[in-house]
Amino acid sequence: MGDAGFFKGTSADQDVRFPDKKKKLLKSTSFAPILSTKVDMKKVDLPTIKLWITKRVTQLIGIEDDVLVDYIFGQLEQDTVDPNEMQINITGFLNKNAGSFMAELWELLVSAQQSPLGIPKVLLEQTKEQIRRERAEHGRLVDELKKQREQEESGRLANRPAPRAEGERKRRWGDREDQPRAPDRDRERERRRSPSPRRRRDPSRERDVSRERDRDRDRRRVRSRSRERERRKGSRERSRERKNRSRSRSKSRERERNEGSENKERRRRRSRS
Q1: Are 85 and 22 in contact, with CB atoms under 8 Å apart?
Q2: What is the DSSP letter of 182?
Q3: Helices 83-94 and 98-114: crossing angle, nearest 10°?
Q4: What average pLDDT does range 188-209 have in this prediction?
Q5: DSSP label of 8
Q6: What angle do CA 233, 239, 244 make, to 5 degrees?
Q7: Which residue blocks in the chain are alpha helix, DSSP H?
Q8: b/e string for 207-223 if b means 16 or more Cβ within 10 A?
Q9: What is the pTM of this model?
């Protein structure tokens, strides 16, 4: 009777009728030898690995699958990562590509834990190669732009008219260097070079002009304010007149009504008498 409060029997793990499917898959599935290497995930730069996982999964299944990428990345963020069990978990998504994917992923993780930066050596080399290609492309574009500018400059120089010869210039314009300059021409040239009195600035005159401008502005403001006061005053007077008219009309109507009622009362009295 003392054991009545406890259940007796075997659990599902102990019962041979319910075999563990995961253990069966672990025994029947072939795994890459690299998966037997232990990896310390604390030494790995996971964001870099996630970029590779996203790119590789898209290549294998042909579409971007954020759910599968997050699922794989979530298994890598666990305290202990079992690569064999992880391969079994993603087999339903990648099918026959699960083994090759796990081999490539684990090789990157092993390389990353050996690197001081936590980045696999292969990805570092790919990044360096991409930077070199971008620099070479940039240099090629710069050279092409330089050649294009040189060609445009050479074409512009080729289209420019050639300078006239000295003899032709003298035949057309005459030899002016030997001719004496006329005094009127010299005076005109000096007058053009010297600043005219109109162009010279007079500080005192500018101050007077600015003061006069300020006075005009103040006068305009005063006039506008006075006009605004007069307009408001006129509007108030008109409103008073309208109110007085309405009051007088209402009083006259009231008086007429009272007189009419009095006349009616008199007529009644007369008719009764």
Answers
A1: yes
A2: P
A3: 140
A4: 68
A5: -
A6: 125
A7: 21-28, 46-61, 66-76, 83-94, 98-114, 121-159, 166-173, 183-193, 203-272
A8: eeeeeeeeeeeeeeeee
A9: 0.44
- Taking alpha carbons only, the member of 83, 126, 80 closest to residue 105 is 83
Can you read off the two tokens belonging to residue 87? 């391969």
For 59, the token pair is 């290549």
For 154, the token pair is 């050479």
Question: Do 26 and 88 contact (CB within 8 A), yes or no?
Answer: yes
Sequence-distant (6+) residues with CB within 8 A of 104 are 56
Q: In a 3-state reduction of DSSP, which class is residue 87? A: helix
- Cα–Cα distances (Å) from 163 to 4, 159, 168, in that order, read 123, 12, 10
CA dihedral 35, 41, 47, 50 (to 10 degrees): 20
For residue 51, what are its two tokens? Answer: 């970029």
What rounded mean pLDDT belongs to the chain?
Answer: 78
CA distance 34 to 110: 9
- Among all chains, which residue has been given the structure tokens 């007085």? 244
Burial (0-12, 13-18, 19+ Cβ within 10 Å), 72: buried
pLDDT tens-digit readout, 70-100: 999 898 888 788 888 888 888 888 888 888 9
Q: Between the CA of residue 58 and those of 53, 62, 76, 86, 93, what are the distances in Å?
A: 8, 5, 19, 19, 12
pLDDT score, position 101? 92
Start-to-end Cα distance in the chain: 126
